[in-house]
Automatic annotation (TrEMBL):
InterPro entries: TPR-like_helical_dom_sf (IPR011990), TPR_2 (IPR013105), TPR_rpt (IPR019734). The keyword Repeat applies. Keywords: Membrane, Repeat, TPR repeat, Transmembrane, Transmembrane helix. The keyword Membrane applies. It holds the Pfam family TPR_2. SUPFAM superfamilies: TPR-like (SSF48452). This is Tetratricopeptide repeat protein. TPR repeats lie at residues 598-631. The chain crosses the membrane at residues 75-95, 115-135, 156-173, 225-244, 256-289, 301-329, 341-360, 396-417, 429-450, 456-475, 487-505. PROSITE patterns: TPR (PS50005).
Length: 681
């Protein structure tokens, strides 16, 4: 009996058949009374249907987990309000007098007065709402609901017009100043049908496929049509962001705020017709993060995570910073050691297969690292050692303030509330942290050699997981349930982003901002300074502004003294302002430096012709004609022959030009003037 008593519990006896019949009879009587008296009666019995019921799909538990681990505290709202006030003051002061070291804050300062007032007004509105919410915060009031509201689908209908307006806004606000990143290079490659793969093969392949589609549709590769691909990437990123927001919270208001904060990160600029690989890369990164969150939540397969990682690395090698987060998922997976090893090898094999299919050579992959090495070797000469650390920290802070100001404030508020350790306990958040920390280390490392104000696009990709971590950290907090606070956060994020987008959508404003961030007073590596000034040279050449071209060509040469390409650029600028003797010296220096190009010999020959040095001009035109069979080279070769007294040779050359390029008018006029237009003399 002792064992039986222990099994049934103290004071309980095994049920006999009589006991079971009595309980069944009592249960039946209670059910009949419940049916007769209705559900409001004092005793009700819940009867489970005997048939098989369809099991409802469980919603993501992220919000519920957050409420168990994060204690509601008014400190969060107050720190957010104070941080927003400090941020708004920094934005306002920086916008009054933009400087090279405030590039993450001062975008409004380059706009016209109405647009400046609009963007700063949005920031001020956000600050006021956050301050009011902080004053009226009471713990426990207005907490988000624990379950899903059945009216959520109806309430979310208001998103439909926003979804339709989003791509339209991206296209209307597309980039019109192509100085940031490598946009000029990519635009030149696309319009001339060249697609070097370098370290971003799948992104380059995406652009190539899109350009091929335009050719099939007989659409010219103009900027306004090319801008559609980044806009499509923006639509894809919004869809992924909405799926990711499922893991932020279950209530619709917090989920919509999560979507809004992801959509107002600085990376949204990449979707506004930004001619680079990074619009494609950010979509790949978001896809990987979504796959990782689903697996950490127990919904998705680790196979999909590995494939999405391989896809991301294929779009750009910098995505390798996500490898630690993938390894964390493998270590936490409940599987065998053999399967773990297979999952480790999966992205390596897939990425290797892609490289083999695309015939990517090792030199193409190593090229960006070689450029980085050059920048590292020259960066130490740009700043005195005493200012190196301060300058790098300032650049890193500007990057954070440009790309993720509100997520940074959310992280700061939770740090003051003292809940960071408990926050990282959930598997979803641990996964995000494993992606965010290496990404921020990569961003900090890239700040050292380069110009973050120019190369913000690459660094924004590595900061994206950290931004999502900040959003995941802050939004589920019960203290942030106030509608004022939610709207305030959205306005605080939207105002600076809109200012940044508007600057780059205005050619004049974007040019002024770029000149500021590469001002001679800014400490840049010689490589970055030369490259930046070369962008302005190309810009002013297209606009036929010879004086401005000369200014920035000389600055590029000063940054990399002896660079033969920049010597030739200065020579061209001097020729266009009719300073032929000086131009000839720079062209000669370029040739001595090893620049063996037809156009350099041709332009040097033009300089000699202007100085009546016809024999020397004839020699240079011959070299140019041998290197490149172009009508202008041969035409001026004939002019030099005529000037040196060899009229028969000139006539023969011009006849050749007329036969092969009958539409080339200068030669037709020369034949008419000197030989009466006929083939014979």
């Amino acid at each position: 009996m002792g064992s039986a008593g222990h099994y049934w519990g103290q004071g309980h006896r095994p049920l006999t058949c009589a006991h079971r019949l009595e309980q069944a009879s009592s249960l039946g009587r209670d059910y009949v009374r419940h049916v007769r008296e209705g559900p409001g009666s004092g005793s009700s019995v819940r009867i489970r249907a005997m048939g098989k019921r369809k099991r409802e799909k469980a919603a993501p538990r992220a919000a519920a987990d957050a409420r168990r681990t994060l204690a509601a505290s008014p400190i969060v709202a107050r720190v957010l309000a104070l941080g927003a006030i400090a941020y708004a003051l920094a934005v306002a002061l920086s916008s009054r007098h933009p400087r090279p070291n405030t590039w993450g804050l001062d975008a409004s300062g380059y706009l016209s007065a109405p647009l400046r007032g609009l963007t700063l007004g949005m920031v001020a509105t956000g600050v006021v709402l956050l301050a009011v919410a902080a004053v009226k915060t009471s713990v426990g009031a207005g907490q988000p609901s624990q379950g899903r509201d059945p009216q959520d689908h109806r309430r979310l209908r208001f998103l439909i017009p926003l979804i339709l307006l989003f791509p339209v806004a991206l296209w209307l606000l597309r980039v019109r100043s192509y100085f940031l990143g490598d946009q000029q290079v990519w635009l030149d490659y696309i319009q001339t049908d060249r697609y070097p793969l370098f370290s971003e093969p799948l992104a380059a392949l995406t652009w190539r496929g899109y350009a091929f589609l335009l050719r099939i549709l007989a659409i010219p590769p103009l900027e306004r049509w090319l801008a559609i691909l980044p806009v499509l990437c923006g639509i894809a990123s919004a869809i992924l962001a909405w799926q990711i927001s499922r893991y932020v919270a279950r209530d619709w208001k917090t989920r919509v705020l999560g979507l809004a904060l992801i959509a107002t990160l600085g990376t949204t600029q990449l979707y506004c017709g930004y001619f680079e690989s990074y619009a494609v890369v950010t979509v790949a990164v978001l896809l990987y993060l979504l796959a990782g969150l689903r697996h950490a939540h127990g919904e998705g397969s680790l196979l999909l995570v590995g494939l999405s990682l391989a896809l991301g690395v294929g779009t750009h090698l910098v995505v390798l910073f996500l490898v630690p987060s993938y390894l964390l998922l493998i270590l936490r997976a409940r599987t065998t050691a053999v399967r773990r090893a297979a999952f480790v090898l999966l992205p390596i094999l897939v990425a290797g297969g892609v490289a083999w299919l695309l015939q990517i050579r090792g030199g193409q992959i190593l090229r960006p690292f070689q450029v980085l090495q050059v920048a590292l070797l020259t960066s130490g000469l740009a700043r005195p050692q005493t200012t190196n650390l301060a300058g790098h920290l300032t650049d890193f802070a500007n990057l954070i303030l440009l790309v993720m100001p509100v997520p940074a404030l959310l992280i700061l508020s939770r740090a003051f509330a003292g809940s960071l350790r408990s926050w990282a306990a959930a598997p979803e958040r641990a996964f995000l942290m494993a992606a965010a920390i290496p990404g921020m280390f990569v961003a900090a490392a890239l700040v050292l050699p380069g110009s973050p104000a120019q190369d913000w696009d690459l660094m924004s990709v590595t900061a994206l997981p950290a931004a999502l971590s900040g959003i995941f950290l802050g939004l589920p907090d019960p203290s942030l349930a106030s509608n004022r606070l939610r709207v305030g956060l959205a306005m605080l994020a939207l105002g600076p982003l809109l200012a940044f987008i508007l600057v780059n959508a205005d050619e004049g404003a974007g040019t002024r901002r770029f000149k500021m961030i590469i001002d001679p007073s800014v400490a840049l590596s010689s490589h970055e300074r030369a490259y930046a000034n070369e962008k302005l040279v190309k810009y002013y050449i297209l606009r036929q502004d010879a004086d401005s071209t000369l200014v920035y060509a000389k600055r590029a040469l000063a940054a990399e003294t002896g660079n033969p390409r920049f010597c030739a650029t200065v020579g061209t600028a001097l020729y266009n302002v009719h300073r032929y003797t000086e131009a000839a010296r720079y062209f000669e220096e370029a040739i001595r430096g090893g620049l063996d190009r037809a156009e350099v010999y041709y332009q040097l020959g033009l300089c000699y012709m202007r100085e009546h040095r016809y024999d020397e001009a004839l020699a240079k035109f011959r070299v140019a004609a041998n290197l490149g069979d172009r009508p202008e080279y041969l035409h001026n070769l004939g002019m030099a022959m005529l000037a040196t007294g060899d009229a028969d040779a000139a006539h023969s050359v011009w006849n050749y030009v007329r036969e092969h390029w009958p539409e080339f008018e200068p030669t037709a006029l020369a034949l008419e003037r000197h030989f009466g237009g006929g083939k014979g003399r």
